[in-house]
Specification:
α2 crosses α3, α3 packs across α4 and α6 packs parallel to α10. The protein has 2 domains: 157 residues, HAD superfamily/HAD-like (Rossmann fold, 3-Layer(aba) Sandwich); 74 residues, Putative phosphatase, domain 2 (DNA polymerase, domain 1), CATH 1.10.150.240. The longest helix has 22 residues. Helix content is 44%, strand content 12%. The protein is globular and about 55 Å long. It is built from 10 helices and 8 strands. Strands 5-4-1-6-7-8 form a 6-stranded parallel sheet, sandwiched between helices. Strands 2-3 form a two-stranded antiparallel sheet. It is of the alpha/beta class and 254 residues long.
Length: 254
Amino acid sequence: MSVNRREFLGFAGVGLAASAVAPATAWSGMSGNVKAVAFDAFPVFDPRPIFTLTEELFPGQGAELSRAWRTRQFEYQWLRALAGRYADFWRATEEALIYSARALRLDLTTATRTRLMEAYLALDVWPDVPAALPLLSRAGLRLAFLSNATPQILDSAIRRAELADLFEAVISTDSIRSYKPDPRAYQLAVDTLRLRRDQILFVAFAGWDVAGAKWFGYPTFWVNRLGLPEGELGIVPDGTGPGLQDLVTFVGAR
């Protein structure tokens, strides 16, 4: 059984490009001030196959499992970070999967759990990525990742997509044993790139990441592939659009 569109768009934090998001317009705030773009992993890497696999392995229940898994994944990360009981992205994600399957009374065998987890090591890029990233680089912008994912996940995806030559830095919050939106996590890009926070445009996949980055002091662009509304946190991204071509327009890199 395949995942239908309605089920798929119900997944927390992943989804298809949504036409409801207005295309970005060029940002007057660029004016040479921004020197680098720091990406969360998922504006670049496409997580949809993970959740397609979930439906393949649990026909008719994959969408519900995916929603529960994704929600519990963030809950475990943030709870552990707040409590000072850190576990990395891989462990928190696996524990969230085990709990969610148990809560839904699904038979999650060791082999099935391994297949789902190892899907994180086989991420491909979104279709708009190969054309967009070189334009940003040729415009003179330094590119970096700033992600909660482990170095292993990031390195595997970068190798598969052959992006190493485009990215100057690959930063995992695992290095400080915490997660975004901890301000210390956003500080990592400032320290690594040796730029002021207002010189780094942060590109988020999730609305909560927009909020965390804005509170920290970054200008932000939200790659809102789900077409979700802005959160009720008093935060508005500097720019938004459903894909990376909108980011290219936003920074005037065409």
